Amino acid sequence: xxxxxxxxxxxxxxxxxxxxxxxxxxxxxxxxxxxxxxxxxxxxxxxxxxxxxxxxxxxxxxxxxxxxxxxxxxxxxxxxxxxxxxxxxxxxxxxxxxxxxxxxxxxxxxxxxxxxxxxxxxxxxxxxxxxxxxxxxxxxxxxxxxxxxxxxxxxxxxxxxxxxxxxxxxxxxxxxxxxxxxxxxxxxxxxxxxxxxxxxxxxxxxxxxxxx
Length: 212
What we know:
Order of helices and strands: EHEEHEHEEEEEEEEEEEEEEEEEE
CATH class of the largest domain: Mainly Beta
């Protein structure tokens, strides 16, 4: 098994670390600006990925994204990793169900209880979080972030650098362009052009208790 260095030090990194350890890997430390994981050594950040190359066998990207800024931050880290040809490891939770003919790229994370159907293609550095359902013949580009409980119907295409929020649903056959933000709870029934944003209407307060 590999000596894994985690890239990212926030709450999502805890989920990635859990899966890495479940798969038998040794987590040797974290590369991050701000480390909230005091039980693991802080190895530095982007420059130290090079100077401390002997300390790890592979990197695991553990930086989440909840908006376009988060996706852009992930992209900057990915480009640094690619530019220096640093090794990465894909992690698939043993609690996920992934069809045998699914193609998984480099640096991918697939969380607990994810279901991925047959003939699906997952690009490099894709994040698929807990209990997402991915239908048959889906194509997912590089650096796509899929939040928990997302549903993608069959033959859906998601272009690179796109984020899908919690419980977003995408109808069968839909194409979503690159750099889109699909807000939590959105129902996508039409193709989305690149850099589109969809938002589900937020809840409204109809009644509040009186003061006092």
